[in-house]
Design goal:
five-stranded mixed β-sheet; three-stranded antiparallel β-sheet; alpha+beta; RES family NAD+ phosphorylase; RES_dom; globular; 193 residues; 5 helices
């Protein structure tokens, strides 16, 4: 992956993740259920973030887009915002120059049945020393929302990895998802706390 396009997340830049309230925010997957999971690098996995709260919402709750999203499902999750503890160099598949390596938009948009290509890319990026992959969020047809798949030690980690701000998902994020990305919700409004 010599000269593969890269993007630097500067020290102190914010990244966002939505997770189940019952679980901690940091979990690096290696089970192959998600797009950029490191399935063949024992001891290493992938934790999924976005560059905006809306990107994290769409990436995490995309399976509810075609049906009404229960507000109880939203209330059972948390929005985690964390500042990068140091600069992160990511393989950038949002850059058209990635096309030189046989990358196209399908790497961020393929269905779960076709993650082999994106997981192979994750392995190559990991082996090349990248901290993760920057990609377009699948269900944003405008391609403005960006996800960040970070590599790290497999499994759950406490907030001591990088402490962040963990809070309820605000109604403003839900309203944006409904207005701009055609999510529909059902149930009572979220508690503003």
């Amino acid at each position: 992956m010599n000269n593969f396009p890269q993007h630097v997340v500067d020290h102190g830049s914010l990244l966002y993740r939505i997770h189940h309230a019952a679980n901690g925010a940091w979990f690096f997957r290696a089970d192959g259920l998600f797009r950029f999971d490191l399935t063949d690098r024992p001891g290493h996995g992938t934790c999924y973030f976005a560059e905006s709260p809306l990107g994290a919402f769409v990436e995490t709750l995309q399976s509810f887009r075609s049906i009404s999203l229960p507000r109880a499902e939203i209330a059972g999750r948390r929005l985690f915002a964390v500042k990068a503890d140091f600069a992160l160099v990511l393989a950038d598949v949002t850059d058209n120059a990635a096309g030189r390596y046989g990358i196209d938009a399908s790497v961020g948009a393929s269905s779960a049945s076709d993650y082999a290509h994106s997981q192979a890319l994750a392995t190559r990026a990991f082996d090349a020393g990248f901290a993760g992959i920057r990609y377009h969020v699948r269900n944003d047809l405008s391609q403005r929302l960006v996800g960040v798949a970070l590599f790290g030690p497999t499994g759950p980690h406490g907030d001591d990895l990088w402490p962040g701000d963990d809070q309820a998902i605000g109604e403003e994020i839900v309203a944006l998802a409904c207005r701009d990305l055609y999510f529909r919700t059902r149930g009572p409004l979220l508690d503003p706390a």
